[in-house]
Amino acid sequence: MVLNLLQNAAQAVPDRSREVWIATEFEQPDGEVVIEIGDQGVGMDDDLIAQISEPFVTTRRAQGGTGLGLSVSSRIVQEHGGRLLFDSTPGAGTRARVCLPASG
Fold first, then answer.
1. Which of 46, 26, 44 is nearest to 36 (CA)?
2. pTM of the prediction?
3. Based on the structure, what is the number of domains in the chain?
4. What span, in angstroms and rounded, lies between the C-alpha atoms of 35 and 23?
5. How far apart are CA 81 and CA 44, in angstroms?
6. Could you give the residue ranges of the DSSP H alpha helices within 13-68?
7. pLDDT tens-digit profile of 43-72?
8. Which of 40, 51, 46 is nearest to 16 (CA)?
9. What is the CATH classification number for the domain harbouring 44?
């Protein structure tokens, strides 16, 4: 799931001058471990963000994308009691936040 999010971030940047990053943190009040993966890529509008975790939704169909990676990643996170959240700005990039309970 993390590799899929990293791959998506890398594919979203138009050239090597833009960044892809990963960070982790523990959010004490919520008792969650958070993994953030971000990019300075092309970004997504609100309509796409609303459906990005649905099966077969892709911006990369012409490059062979199936639109299954984020739906599978979202399902994996949910099966572990977590949430997969996205924040994006067209032209500026996207941030994916994986929030998982620290204890099961």
1. 26
2. 0.87
3. 1
4. 6
5. 26
6. 46-51
7. 999 999 999 999 888 877 777 778 888 999
8. 40
9. 3.30.565.10
